Recover the amino acids of this structure.
């Protein structure tokens, strides 16, 4: 009886792996399409949780590929590319919402190519680019379907800016048993062609500060007959800032961003209460949680010294954990992308981002990797900060984001085939 070759029993037997030249050729073939999609989306932005036309447009593009779409409560959805051959399942994610921000028609240097047509709403964070990238990738991987194994899940997430769509999406994806999830975020302080791929914490966790300091209001002419929460609130802020330097581990960064202090509305009335609001940002989950404990204790103790009380709002506390790239998956991704874009990979810690991202929650489902493609081009005028009315991107950057995502998917499905 002849021996049976173990390799020949592999689902990849008889299939040629997709090499880098094929990937780059495919990227070039969809480049005009990706730019066109990005332009359309940029001109028609919709706010978080209201991406109705955006979702319909994306689904119409997915329908052209013949892929089934599963809607998630809200406006989010996912589409599945099933090769009908055994293998791993990878998730590829984009976010689809825009910001409540009036767009400036000029970037840092010149008039923008695309400008929002929706008053007071704009894609000032690059989510239009993320969606265009994923649609380009979906086209490429559908073209390469006969050379792939396993399944690919294209994830279009509602409301990243407000966290409105992430939890329903996580629950919808849970039964699919995804093995790895890849996402990207265009980055305004990285040059076009650069790709930041680094293991470990790369984006901050965030938490909400929201509480009322309550005293007893009265006439400003007789403060002795009232209990003034304004002084208590002022002392609380001073106390917190002092505690930040003396009662925390200074080797673990936690930024204290107080952004709101709101009390009375007229000059001669002492208010009953003062609201204090803001955020914390942190890269160590445990240190973030400890910081909230410290903030609560200092606030309560100082309020009590002023005969006031503190009421913490329900949303006070950690909202999102830090975005931590899985070590093994990130190293795999970096090596794979280096094959097609040698010399383009950046790992310097200066590009670690203090912004927060709902993508961190996908780690509940599978190992994750989040990549930052650069979009800065001084000559073009792109490079303004995210969430800025002059924000713009260099469309030449989109090809690198598409290529990196495709290369990850094809190499992962090939390397980890059952």
């Amino acid at each position: 009886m002849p021996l049976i070759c173990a390799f020949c029993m592999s689902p990849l037997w008889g299939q040629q792996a997709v090499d880098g030249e094929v990937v780059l050729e495919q990227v070039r073939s969809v480049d005009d399409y990706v730019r066109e999609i990005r332009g359309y989306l940029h001109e028609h932005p919709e706010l978080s949780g209201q991406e109705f036309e955006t979702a319909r447009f994306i689904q119409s593009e997915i329908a052209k590929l013949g892929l089934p779409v599963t809607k998630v409560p809200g406006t989010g959805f996912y589409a599945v590319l099933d090769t009908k051959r055994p293998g791993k399942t990878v998730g590829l994610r984009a976010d689809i919402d825009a910001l409540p921000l009036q767009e400036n028609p000029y970037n840092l240097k010149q008039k923008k190519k695309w400008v929002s047509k929706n008053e007071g709403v704009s894609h000032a964070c690059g989510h239009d680019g993320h969606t265009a990238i994923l649609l380009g990738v979906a086209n490429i991987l559908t073209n390469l379907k006969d050379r792939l194994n396993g399944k690919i899940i294209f994830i279009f997430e509602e409301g990243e800016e407000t966290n409105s769509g992430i939890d329903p999406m996580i629950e919808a994806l849970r039964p699919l048993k995804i093995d790895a999830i890849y996402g990207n975020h265009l980055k305004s302080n990285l040059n076009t062609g650069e790709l930041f791929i680094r293991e470990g914490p790369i984006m901050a966790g965030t938490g909400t500060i929201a509480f009322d300091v309550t005293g007893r209001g009265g006439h400003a002419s007789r403060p002795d007959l009232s209990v003034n929460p304004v002084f208590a609130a002022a002392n609380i802020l001073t106390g917190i800032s002092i505690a930040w330097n003396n009662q925390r581990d200074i080797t673990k960064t936690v930024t204290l961003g107080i952004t709101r202090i709101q009390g009375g509305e007229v000059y001669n009335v002492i208010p009953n209460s003062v609201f204090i609001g803001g955020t914390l940002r942190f890269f160590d989950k445990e240190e973030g949680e400890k910081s909230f404990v410290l903030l609560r204790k200092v606030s309560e103790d100082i309020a009590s010294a002023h005969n006031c009380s503190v009421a913490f709002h329900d949303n006070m506390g950690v909202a999102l954990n830090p975005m931590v790239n899985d070590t093994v998956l990130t190293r795999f991704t970096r090596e794979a992308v280096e094959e097609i874009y040698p010399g383009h990979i950046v790992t310097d810690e200066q590009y670690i981002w203090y912004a927060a991202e709902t993508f961190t929650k996908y780690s509940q489902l599978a190992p994750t990797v989040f990549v930052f493609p650069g979009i800065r081009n001084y000559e073009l005028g792109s490079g303004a900060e995210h969430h800025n009315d002059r924000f713009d991107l260099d469309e030449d950057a989109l090809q690198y984001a598409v290529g990196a995502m495709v290369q990850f998917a094809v190499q992962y499905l090939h390397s980890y085939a059952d």
